[in-house]
Amino acid sequence: MIEIKNISKWYGQFQVLKDCSTKVDKGDVMVICGPSGSGKSTLIKTVNGLEPVQQGQIIVDGTSVGEKTTDLPALRARIGMVFQNFELFPHLSVRDNLTLGQIKVLGRSADEATARGLQYLDRVGLLAQQDKFPGQLSGGQQQRVAIARALSMDPIAMLFDEPTSALDPEMINEVLDVMVGLAQEGMTMMVVTHEMGFARKVANRVVFMDQGAILEDTAKDEFFQAPKTERARDFLARIIH
């Protein structure tokens, strides 16, 4: 469903991605991990064109992301994205946050968009909060609304960019529980995270990055039991300890 072929990216003279290649099949849950500054978030943002690349190719469900003729808004509507800092519209109610993209991008009627949005709001356990504004919710609740908003667009895959890193520790599990449920229902997912418990429970693939390069791209059990590189072994020892 997602194929990343030999992509490289620079910010000025600094190379942030170095010849990265991987692929995600339908139903895969890929966790991307590594130290801060390793290029994880940049890699995941290339999948829907939020970060353009200077070399290589990204193909999503048969569409080349970097082609000038590609309709990026239409592509992004099919690839759900959940950010570190929620990115909800603060001046809109929860319900309006859920319906705006459906109406503007997918052309749904207000009634259809509301029904769809509230279905997913209920799915993340927040139906009673539909009339509130984001500022009236906890961080964990806001992130769950962001997940419901992405799901309302009927995505073929979901991208998560460190979805729990801005949350207080007691709020992390309520977001991870929603993500575990999505994975168990067969949603194709790429997840940048430091939550190794989530990776062990849900992922079937793990990509380990350092200094802009993919050092390991392997099955979950193989990564946790016998990482191939010393850098990955050191990372796991530190983060699991």
UniProtKB/TrEMBL annotation:
Q: Where is the signal peptide?
A: none
Q: Does the keyword Nucleotide-binding apply?
A: yes
Keywords of the record: Amino-acid transport, ATP-binding, Cell membrane, Membrane, Nucleotide-binding, Transport
Task: Give residue ranges for domain ABC transporter.
Answer: 2-236
Question: Domain of life here?
Answer: Bacteria
GO MF terms held by the record: ATP binding
State its location(s): Cell membrane
Topology class, membrane: Peripheral membrane protein
Q: Which Pfam families match?
A: ABC_tran
Name the protein family: Belongs to the ABC transporter superfamily.
User: What is the protein's name according to its record?
Assistant: ATP-binding cassette domain-containing protein
